[in-house]
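Support reply, case 0932

Customer input (verbatim):
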Amino acid sequence: MKRVVVPLVLYALFVCSALYVYVYGTCGVRRLGELDEHAELLQDNIQQLEATNAELNRRLRSLSEADAVRLLARELNYLAAGETAITIDSYAPKRSFYEVGRLIIMREARASVALRQTLFLVPLVLLLGYFVVVSRAT
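Our regenerated output:
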């Protein structure tokens, strides 16, 4: 009987440890889900940047070089010779700044500490209990 119980206990401990690594390891199921979410955020950010790039290229192509210089100078509050600036206190001009991309930082793996410790300690407790039972039986 003892010859059968020892391999079964060791197999149970191995299965518990393997499940722990499979779920909470650095390449585990939970981490894979977090990496997939991060990859989706990066793809969304790339699509937004490509849309911004296309809009800016369209605006650039629509202007001749002289018009582009004049428009950019006006946005920087430069005036051409003979022009005067009129200031309206209650008017706030629309600022057209383009977002150059969000900084997307990868979050650390956040498995529940209590659950991780429990799953880690269960095989050790089983092994200790097994040795206690075997020592009392002999």
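We compared this against your earlier run and they match. Two observations from our side: Residues 2-137 form one domain. The chain is about 65% helix and 0% strand. Please reopen the case if you see a mismatch on your end.
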